[in-house]
Design goal:
Blueprint: H1 2-24, H2 35-53, H3 59-82, H4 84-91, E1 95-99, E2 102-103, H5 105-110, H6 115-124, E3 133-138, E4 144-148, E5 160-164, E6 167-168, H7 170-175, H8 180-189, E7 198-204, E8 207-212
Antiparallel strand pairs: 1-2, 1-3, 3-4, 5-6, 5-7, 7-8
Helix pairs in contact: 1-2, 2-3, 3-4
């Protein structure tokens, strides 16, 4: 009887603890979990099961690996918040599958993404005709972001990030056939000399959106 009570106590304790841990790690949908989040969640679940079943092992010894994993995850999440290069390494980067109405088959092959996958995700977003799509971006989560063609406007439906966390997005510049020198001159004319002071900058047909890094951070 004591053993059953111990199992029930450990189950309730770990249930409450894991809910607290997941809230502590931030609100993210399951489909948007990063690789780090997914690995930590799986390992915590396995350790929790062992902690419930192995009543002969002290509870502190069972909880120690969980707290260690959470500490590591929070440390790496902080590094990821500060470093875009680290984010790209861990989470991956968005990939342009359709660019200005043209399908990039090379990028599709690189991500092992076939036409059946593309057409399925387009249909799920209400696009039965691929010719209506101007841009399609495969997100690190596996979701497909779709931007349709606007026949009544010459303006692109998508603002392209030029600077993120003070880092120039060279791939996006190449996509627009622009150079970093061009970007520097455009921003200099707007009074922004130091690109590293810019938190986020996007460009859409001659218009820039610019947000500066908060000096208090």
């Amino acid at each position: 009887m004591d053993q059953y009570l111990m199992i029930a106590f450990r189950t309730l304790l770990l249930y409450a603890l894991i809910i607290f841990i997941f809230r502590l790690m931030g609100k993210r949908e399951v489909g948007e979990l990063s690789l780090l989040d997914l690995v930590v969640f799986i390992m915590i679940a396995e350790i929790a099961v062992l902690a419930i079943e192995e009543t002969n092992i002290s509870l502190f010894r069972s909880l120690l690996p969980i707290f260690l994993l959470v500490s590591i995850q929070m440390l790496l999440a902080y590094i990821s918040l500060k470093s875009k290069r680290f984010r790209d390494l861990i989470d991956g980067r968005p990939t342009m599958i359709i660019n200005n109405g043209k399908i990039d088959e090379r990028e599709m092959r690189r991500h092992r993404y076939n036409f059946d996958d593309l057409l399925l995700q387009l249909r799920q977003q209400g696009y039965a005709d691929i010719s209506l799509v101007d841009y399609a971006i495969l997100e690190p989560s596996g979701n497909l972001s779709v931007f349709s063609k606007d026949e009544n406007s010459n303006r692109s439906p998508m603002a392209v990030p030029m600077i993120v966390d003070g880092t120039v997005m060279e791939d996006n510049l190449k996509m627009l056939n622009k150079s970093q020198k061009w970007l520097e001159e455009k921003l200099k004319n707007k009074g922004f000399i130091n690109l590293e002071s810019i938190s986020f900058c996007s460009y859409n047909n001659g218009s820039f959106f610019i947000d500066l890094i908060d000096a208090k951070k």
